[in-house]
Design a protein that fits this description.
Blueprint (H helix, E strand, L loop, with lengths): L4 H12 L3 H22 L3 H17 L10 H20 L26 H10 L2 H12 L4 H8 L3 H29 L3
Helix pairs in contact: 1-2, 2-3, 2-4, 3-4, 4-6, 5-8, 6-8, 7-8
Length: 188
């Protein structure tokens, strides 16, 4: 059953009152969405679940800070993204290129992206080195600007651009290889 905005507001009000049943319902409603975001920032399902659970802990402990004028999903997404960044700071050594050089992009920018399903792309994003994966997700998917990423990760904007370009190049190569392997196995 799809929840209406009104129902979600009622659930959030109950969460503010400390109602465990409402917390469980909110968790159930946003689990799939949350895990889909967390998976992009993690290298495994277990890591994504850890990020997701930490995010829900933050939601429930800071639910009074949520402004009902805004869509809950957007607020939750920001918590997920920030928790992912914090997770990588705490448990992973963020290794982004410390260079301000920008890697050139191939002229055929979309090599390997066609004929792939979401799961194929997600697996390849998860295989990226943590720093590249973080920058790639923040820029390409969540729409942050390089100067914003640089500020959040304590790197230069040039390092953010370079890390994004390297991540993109790695993904293009891997996805191109996946496409070629699929074609060969299908006898094309």
């Amino acid at each position: 059953m799809k929840e209406t905005t009104h129902n979600i507001s009622l659930i959030i009000q109950a969460c503010r009152a400390g109602n465990r049943g409402a917390q469980k319902r909110l968790y159930q409603l946003f689990f799939s969405y949350g895990i889909s975001v967390a998976l992009r920032y993690s290298s495994s399902r277990a890591e994504a679940e850890e990020i997701l659970n930490e995010s829900f802990f933050k939601v429930f402990s800071k639910i009074d800070q949520y402004d009902d004028q805004y869509e809950f999903k957007k607020w939750f997404r920001m918590i997920l993204v920030n928790t992912s960044i914090d997770y990588h700071r705490k448990y992973k050594k963020l290794k982004t290129q410390a260079s301000d050089e920008i890697m050139p992009l191939d002229s055929d920018d979309n090599k390997g992206w066609h004929n792939l399903v979401y799961e194929d792309i997600l697996k390849e994003i998860q295989k990226l080195p943590p720093g590249y994966r973080l920058v790639f997700n923040l820029y390409a998917i969540d729409g942050f600007k390089h100067h914003e990423i640089a500020e959040q990760l304590n790197i230069s904007a040039g390092s953010s651009r370079s890390s994004f370009a390297r991540a993109r190049k790695i993904l293009q190569e891997r996805l191109q290889n996946n496409t070629e392997i699929k074609r060969a196995s299908n006898g094309e």
